[in-house]
Amino acid sequence: MTAPLTITGLTITRPDGRVLVDGLDLTVAAGSVTALVGESGSGKTLTGLAILGLLPQGLTATGSIELGDEQVIGRPENELRELRGTRAALVFQEPQSALNPSQRIWRQIHQVLRAHKRVSRADGRRRAVELLADVGIPDPDTRADWYPHQLSGGQKQRVVIALALAAEPALLIADEPTTALDVTVQAQILTLLRDLRDRKGLAVLLISHNLGVVADLADTVTVVRQGETVESAPVDELFANPQAGYTRDLLAAVPRLPAAPSDPAPSDPESPEPVVRVEGIRVLFAGTAALDGVDLVVGRGEVVGLVGESGSGKTTLGRVLLGLQPIDAGVVDVRATRRALIHQDPYASLDPRWDIGRIVVEPLYIAGERDDRILRERAADLIDAVRLPSDVLRRRPSELSGGQRQRVAFARALASAPELLVADEPTSALDVSVQAGVLDLFRELHAEFGFAAVFVTHDLAVVGEVADRAVVLRQGRVVEEGPARAVLAAPRSEYARDLVAAVPVPDPVEQRSRRKGIR
């Protein structure tokens, strides 16, 4: 039986001759999931686009890409359009941008159906309802008439999968299909993809940098780095005994949830002097409570991890602690006179017109420092503190990698010698190995400078790596609080238990065991 996808010697080059993908070999069998794993710039997404003949203008693909018995490379565009959707379909990373906000859901599915065969409005709507039911949308007949903004993030991703399935392809290309989703929603989408594989015999090419997701879903894995294949193996074999040093480094860089503590945490440990205390705070947005009766104390030198899903109030609470968000009720007692923020997106938070030397001392300039010699010396000290070379001072943000930009954000935050640092998802936009370096840097800076920190994140394993105490938020309320490792290893609240259970671990054998336990 011909495999739904066979790639042989795929090479993708730029007009200047630079090779972006170099001689990739890959096969995805019917009823199986093959994962293409790598960090930014590895060529994963370009490979997915090449399979559908959708490479950006100027890039050239050579070698062989076969969808069943149909060759993709060199095929005319009108014939490629026939293959897209029927032989292979793409599930996008960001469902919000993949859907038309001005069209009802059933009409968008109807458009896909009409692109391949004559389908009446009535039949199109009926088929749309069937597809929505097939991907687990509740009350599909009603929701078929909804617009994308009326659906949750997980429901939107299910709709994107329904669109991909509309023309009954043999191959589904899932490009980071859970990156934009909360961990519990991610678990639901992975279950859906597994079910489609088993029930329909669907072949899935999973493109991902998340090794926990790969361990949970994949049957075989191909690891790529800077366009070159590092190694390929069955998932159990690759995770248990990686042959390449790069693969071993990737696996070692993944934060792990802590094991169950052998000794119970003390019930009332001695608390450090507080730098900020909030009691009963309430924040309303258009009459809806983003925070509802939240109490929190952050001690001097303590690292508190704020954990929760989208809409839990994590970022709003961080802004309250910094004095950036007015409250509607409650008390905020701030004893830290110097506070600083590290944003989620280091590129968006750095002025692209300025060089790094100017960016990192901006807080000092705002505070009134005008002596150029002092500013230059302080900039050099700050860049050295975050382990960057001195020549970075003369560069602009666009000339730096994502990890380097986040280090610059740390340097700028340290400029004012903060007593309280709020880090809002500081590693979520980074590759796993870069994330590991930034977490190491955070621990080193915390040990050196002794600031208190509130680490806002949706990644529970990261909290276990850096935090002394974890606070779990849900819909604006604290549902659990305690020593970080104890909360993650033995959560008391049902919601925290659900969060921990939904985190895929980078071990396929353990992950299968956890899935059975969850059922």
TrEMBL record:
Membrane topology annotation: Peripheral membrane protein
Q: Which GO terms describe its cellular component?
A: plasma membrane
What the entry lists under SUPFAM superfamilies is as follows:
P-loop containing nucleoside triphosphate hydrolases
Protein's GO biological process: peptide transport
Family per UniProt?
A: Belongs to the ABC transporter superfamily.
Q: What are the ABC transporter domain coordinates in residue numbering? A: 5-251, 276-500
Keyword tRNA-binding among record annotations: no
Keywords on this record? ATP-binding, Cell membrane, Membrane, Nucleotide-binding, Transport
Name assigned to this protein? ABC transporter ATP-binding protein
Report the domain of life of the source organism.
Bacteria
Gene3D superfamilies with a match to the protein in the record: P-loop containing nucleotide triphosphate hydrolases
Q: What subcellular locations does the record give?
A: Cell membrane
